[in-house]
Amino acid sequence: MAIERRIGNALLRVEQADITRLAVDAIVNAANASLAPGGGVCGAIHRAAGPELAAECAAIGGCATGDARITRGHRLPARHVIHAVGPVWHGGADGEAQLLRACYQRGIAIAQAHGLASIAFPALSTGIFGYPPDAAATVAVRAVIDALPSAPGVRRVILACFGPENERALTRALEDLGPPAADD
């Protein structure tokens, strides 16, 4: 069951979806620092986009944790891929929350800078990077809510969840941190 909230001029939506099939201006890749094809969401995005995406990423040369880079979407329905390098979970004392927050905010800023009105994020760092889904969801929702006022061109943000655990965590975070729905 999808949940959405209006944040200023933008609609923030949590939904269970295959991010590689979303027809948005940009999807965010849960990338590694080398921007090379990997497993999980990263591997699925690279497979769906085709080998041209890996070639374009190789030409970029990498990206620091907490930062992001943009490429074309190639064979994806999305026109662009924003590659965000989330932190590996080490228990929470190594600045993981700040780095994860930076990924979401950088993704929104890149979308704004490139005139992109719609963006979809996966649950960054919650797969093989081991970030606990509930903690990551709180960071993700707060980061997006805080970034949207500086990105008036971004009109739609989807927090796309591949599985029910992340969907539940993100739904709870949006219910707790977001403004009330119109019918609440």
Describe this structure in words.
- With 184 residues, the protein is an alpha/beta fold.
- The chain has a single domain (3-177), classed as Leucine Aminopeptidase, subunit E, domain 1 (3-Layer(aba) Sandwich), CATH 3.40.220.
- It has helices at residues 40-49, 51-60, 96-113, 133-147, 164-177; strands at residues 3-7, 10-16, 26-31, 68-72, 80-85, 118-121, 156-161.
- A 7-stranded mixed β-sheet has the order 1-2-7-6-3-5-4, sandwiched between helices.
- Strand 1 (3-7) and strand 2 form a beta hairpin.
- It is globular, with a radius of gyration of 15 Å.
- The two termini are 16 Å apart.
- The mean pLDDT is 95.
SSE ordering: EEEHHEEHEHEH
Q: Tell the overall outline.
A: globular
Radius of gyration: 15 Å
Number of helices: 5
- For the report, how would you describe the main beta sheet? 7 strands, mixed
Q: What is the helix content?
A: 25-40%
State the name of the first-level CATH class: Alpha Beta
What order do the helices and strands come in, and which of them pair?
Elements: E1 3-7, E2 10-16, E3 26-31, H1 40-49, H2 51-60, E4 68-72, E5 80-85, H3 96-113, E6 118-121, H4 133-147, E7 156-161, H5 164-177
Helix pairs in contact: 3-4, 4-5
Question: Which short descriptors sum up this protein?
Answer:
single chain, 184 residues, Leucine Aminopeptidase, subunit E, domain 1, 5 helices, 21% strand
What is shown here, in short?
This protein has five helices and seven strands; from the N terminus they run βββααββαβαβα.
